[in-house]
Amino acid sequence: MLxxxxxxxxxxxxxLLQELFGLEMTVADAHCRTCRQVNQMGRAxxxxxxxxxxxxxxACGQVLMRVVRGGGRVxxxxxxxxxxxxxxxxxxxxxx
Amino acid sequence: MGRLTLTPRNLAISRGALxxxxxxxxEIAKQTQRVSSLLLDVPAWPGHQAGQHLDVRxxxxxxxxxxxxxxxxxxxxxxHVEMTVEVIADGEVSPYLVGEVVVGDRFEVRGxxxxxxxxxxxxxxxxxxxxxxxxGVVPLMAMLRSRRERGSRVPARLLYSSRSFEDxxxxxxxxxxxxxxxxxxxxxxxxxxxPLGWSGYARRIDRAMLEEVCWPPGEGAGVYVCGxxxxxxxxxxxxxxxxxxxxxxxxxxxxxxxx
Lengths: 96, 259
Hints:
The complex is a heterodimer.
Chain A: E1 8-9, H1 14-21, E2 29-32, E3 38-40, E4 45-47, E5 53-56, E6 63-70, E7 73-77, E8 81-85
Antiparallel strand pairs in A: 1-4, 2-3, 2-8, 4-5, 5-6, 6-7
Chain B: H1 8-14, E1 21-32, E2 35-41, E3 53-59, E4 65-71, E5 81-86, H2 94-100, E6 106-113, E7 128-133, H3 137-149, E8 156-162, H4 171-179, E9 184-190, H5 207-213, E10 222-227, H6 229-242, E11 249-253
């Protein structure tokens, strides 16, 4: 099996990120620290076959985010993301 | 109290915490040799959008848990949630869901999940281009069902790759959707075996096929591509080569197994 066959999209992170943030995060814009391009998290290249989860920038391929969980703890490394930009949950209207 | 309309915005708010709950299987429909649809009764289901998925969690007697994501096949409006599952030979969850589960069984689900690979029939004005392979058709089917349910008239095209005629998921329903002639066109390609007299495509999806089936990029279609990773890579790259702007293309890769 080729490593490239294991690539998923940011969609696959939706459940995990919602657990961690309590929000739908795949529509959030991630500003890549390496190439400065801005892409929705749903467009990230995601690998979930390792002990941790790795999300890479769809533009430059550098790591945006790593998530490792174990023993009741979660390690969330966002050092590849300069900024996360999303609809302000406190300002959205309607429904509720 | 008025009926709560679920727009992406308030849907996101109403879904703060993702909670596991018990779903009950109310109906099972065998789609193909390897694919079954399960109709679920999920008491506290908050509604969903076409294209979203749900998580299933099975717990063994010794406490071992296995969790998988499956696309939702049903349109948002129905009372039940339909998930459509392809069995993976050495899988932990899909052999149970496709082969062993019976009506009345219960298992844990949570959802809906995902806000990126979704299509909203009430907001869409641009043509809808759907490209799928194998069980990658499931979220695309939710979009076509949602288009019909909401009376949307945006033109839609589905290009669907299957191994053989018998492997086409939702075959009869897709025929009837196309026969309704209300703006949906369905094109099939069969990559491994074709019945006698087959008039559709008979090869893997490639650039030439996409150029024949897709609208010119200038039409501004919104594109959804779903299937095994290798399929999505080829289709998405070909669309970019044809001239589709990358932001107009949304992809959902299933990984190596196609389910």
